[in-house]
Amino acid sequence: MSFISVNPDSHFPIQNLPYGVFSTEEKPQRRIGVAIGDQILDLSVVKHLFDGPVLKSNQRVFEQTTLNELMSLGKAAWDEARVTLQRILSADETILRDHAELRARAFVPQSQAIMHLPAHIGDYTDFYSSMNHARNVGTMFRGPDNALMPNWTHLPVGYHGRASSVVVSGTPIRRPNGQTRPDEGQPPSFGPCRLFDFELEMAFFTGPATPLGSPIPVQKADDHIFGMVVMNDWSARDIQKWEYVPLGPFLGKNLGTTISPWVVTMAALKPFLLDNPDQNPKPMPYLSHTDKYSYDIKLEVAIKGEEMAQPATVCRSNFKYMYWTMKQQLAHHTVTGCNINPGDLMASGTISGQTPDSFGSMLELCWKGTKTVDLGNGVTRKFLKDGDEVIMTGYCEGDGYRVGFGTCAGKVLPALPL
């Protein structure tokens, strides 16, 4: 228990302690904080309390405006920081609890905070690792007999995305203009995307840098995975359909990617480990690991249109539906010798479950436009309309507590005039 009061439904008990970057109107300087209940602990104020063998000489990382330097220190530093945080925030520890002046400087209500991207994201990679999603999309476009491409069960399929358009929750996303060809018998046309979509994903941030030419073995991948966020990889389906042959996603994906502001560490998620999914055929040796690295993370997506008083949940999924683990993704990504840097972002791909109410995109929920999605009170959707706000959440359920990610939200703005 913490001396900070935490509601049982809060995403941020002492078992979690996720990292984020925030500022306030009174103090616009960006700084690193940890969420506890409805408060943020400003680590720049309490950096002197991190006096363990690794962090005592690296307290400067808590004065930075991003998490990159903390990420670069590696797992020993991350574990030491967690031990220190849980100690100084515990109900039995007096160092903060009974120091009124320090507490007044160190804690900021979340309601007063402006959240920012938690890291400088140098590179962003998006995988395609949910078999349910891959089967659904493949069935729509190629039929059930050819739903999965021949390589899909042999390697984690992915592509390199655009890091510059990754934004923090709450940032509006503008409907893109682009080339589409709605009628395959006619030439393409240019204009606003008509099939605008969300994609329910999660993503992880990488830790210590690796030199060019040095792969990360799957057995050591955990040492390079700092923590996770919820992600909405916005998608312009009609632009993507016209452009993606032969090189894959481009303008249909680079328009914006939203992430939740709080990075939940892998140590906080450890109690929610599950057996890895069965993989057939057996992965090649460089992708094989037997330790658990699947997680029971409950995920939801809601849509609130401008004509709606309350958001309507359209999807309930779970991170456990991933076929390829994050360790396998990172090992595959670097097997060529591709180097990574602290703060690189690697996304799961759309996370769809086994039933229609767990599909992680409008493309699947409306099944390529053949169905409508009921939002209640006569409001329906096939794809997103201008003014729609998409709200994603994720959490793990413990015994009397939750370890959560907060919200990942964004509102659709109209396309710019042509």
Give a quick rundown of the structure.
The chain has nine helices and 26 strands. The chain is of the alpha+beta class and 418 residues long.
Topology:
Blueprint (H helix, E strand, L loop, with lengths): L18 E5 L7 E6 L2 E4 L25 H5 L2 H14 L5 H4 L2 H7 E3 L4 E3 L7 E4 L3 H12 L15 E3 L5 E3 L4 E2 L2 E4 L8 E4 L3 E2 L2 E7 L18 E9 L1 E2 H7 L13 E3 L4 E2 H4 L3 E2 L19 E2 L2 E7 L7 E7 L7 H9 L10 E3 L14 H4 L7 E4 L2 E3 L7 E9 L4 E12 L5
Parallel strand pairs: 6-22, 8-16, 9-26
Antiparallel strand pairs: 1-2, 1-5, 2-3, 3-4, 6-7, 10-11, 12-15, 13-14, 13-22, 14-16, 14-17, 18-19, 20-21, 20-25, 23-24, 25-26
Explain this structure to me?
This protein is of the alpha+beta class and 418 residues long. The chain has helices at 68-72, 75-88, 94-97, 100-106, 131-142, 237-243, 266-269, 326-334, 362-365; strands at residues 19-23, 31-36, 39-42, 107-109, 114-116, 124-127, 158-160, 166-168, 173-174, 177-180, 189-192, 196-197, 200-206, 225-233, 235-236, 257-259, 264-265, 273-274, 294-295, 298-304, 312-318, 345-347, 373-376, 379-381, 389-397, 402-413. Strands 6, 7, 8, 13, 14, 16, 17 and 22 form an eight-stranded mixed sheet that branches. The chain has a five-stranded antiparallel sheet with strand order 4-3-2-1-5. It is globular. The termini are far apart.
